Amino acid sequence: MVSSADIMRVAASQTGQPLTIPSVPPPGFAGIKARVVVAFDVDGTLENSLGPVSIERLTQLQSGYPYVAVAIVSPSAKRPPGFPSFLVNGGGDRLANLLAVKQAFPSDLYVYVSDNGDMEVAKKAGFSYVDAKAFV
C-alpha cells in the first residue's frame, strides 16, 4: 500500500517541490471503485503520437468496462482529451505520476502501458509494465 507520505517523499526527492494531489477524483473516475487501472504514456504509445494504441481503444476501456479506469501519466502536449491526467509538479517524473494514480484510485491491478521500457519505474510504483506493441 502506498501512503500519501510515500508520494510526498518521492515528489520531494525528485523535484524539491511539494506535491499537490486533487482532493476530488477527476472526471471519469467519480464513484468508480476500479478493479483495474490502466495508465498510459503518450509519445510513442498512443496513435496520435506515432504509437500503436488507438484513442478508440482507450475510449472502449473507459466506457465499456465499469471496473476499468484509464489514466494518462505523460506530460506530452499530445495527451488526448477526455481522459484524466496525473501530472505531479509538471509531470516529468513518471514514478510520482504513477504513485499519484495509485493513491487516488485503490484497485486490484495496476497496468502501465508505454513504449519506453520503464519496467523498473512501473515495478517501484506497483504497476505491471506492458509494452505498447503488446497492448493492442
Mean pLDDT comes to 79
H/I helix tally: 5
Strand content: 5-15%
What is the fold-level CATH name, i.e. the topology? Rossmann fold
Which class in CATH terms? Alpha Beta
- Summarize the biggest pleated sheet: 4 strands, parallel
User: How do the helices and strands follow one another from N- to C-terminus?
Assistant: HEHEHEHEH
Strand order of the largest sheet: 2-1-3-4
Low-pLDDT stretches? 1-25
Can you tell me the CATH architecture? Answer: 3-Layer(aba) Sandwich
Radius of gyration: 14 Å
Number of domains: 1
How far is the first residue's CA from the last residue's CA? Answer: 29 Å
Concise synopsis of the structure shown:
By secondary structure, this protein is of the alpha/beta class. Helix content is 32%, strand content 15%. The protein starts with a helix and ends with a helix.
Draw up the topology in text.
Elements: H1 4-15, E1 36-40, H2 55-64, E2 68-72, H3 94-104, E3 109-114, H4 119-125, E4 128-131, H5 132-135
Helix pairs in contact: 1-3, 3-4
